[in-house]
Amino acid sequence: MRTVLISARTCFQLAASTVSRRPSLLRPMVASVSQMGNFTPMAGTVAFRRNIITTVKSTGSQEEEILVAQRKNRPLSPHLSIYQKQLTNVMSALHRLSGVALAAGFYGVTCSFAAASILGVPIDPSALVNFFAGLPTFVDYALKAVVGFPFVYHCINGVRHLVWDSSHMTSLKGVYLTGYITIGLTAVGGLWLLFC
């Protein structure tokens, strides 16, 4: 974990640039300082007098320059590549990808049936069955696996999410347990669909 230290000068510059863009932020500060009257600050504190911060009218280009200068000093967020892959984020990504792929396939098939009826191209379910029956065995199994495993995974992982929505198995141990159960049931269900 990286700690970023900001100097008092930088802090003051940031405050001044913020106030210059939005002078309404200064009014409560000025009122509270003027109500305090004469006071002696405790050791280690910083006291701002009312006349230190003044608003300056700036143009859009000056504000842009200030913003660019601030962005140069801003630390960058770490990229996703530095994080170790975990069961939770991989299963979340696979759930989304399988849902998108299944939806695209479903809409592709239904839209092709609708377009075929509009264009007068005969697409008959019995012709599709005969086409798939004539495919070589390895192509048949590959197509079943490409469709079957994502379907089973998305369904079982959806049930897993429903269990979480009922406030069960939401601890870290429960999340991993349901993840391993989902992977196991996906393997069993996908193989069952593949060979039936």
UniProtKB/TrEMBL annotation:
GO terms for cellular component: mitochondrial membrane. GO terms for biological process: mitochondrial electron transport, succinate to ubiquinone; tricarboxylic acid cycle. GO terms for molecular function: electron transfer activity; metal ion binding. It is a multi-pass membrane protein. Keywords: Heme, Iron, Membrane, Metal-binding, Transmembrane, Transmembrane helix. Its main location: membrane. The chain crosses the membrane at residues 100-121, 141-163, 175-195. This is DEBR0S4_03356g1_1. Gene3D superfamilies: Fumarate reductase/succinate dehydrogenase, transmembrane subunit. InterPro entries: SQR/QFR_C/D, Succ_DH_cyt_bsu_CS, Succ_DH_cytb556, SuccDH_FuR_B_TM-su. Pfam families: Sdh_cyt. It is found in: Membrane. The keyword Metal-binding applies. The gene is sdh3.
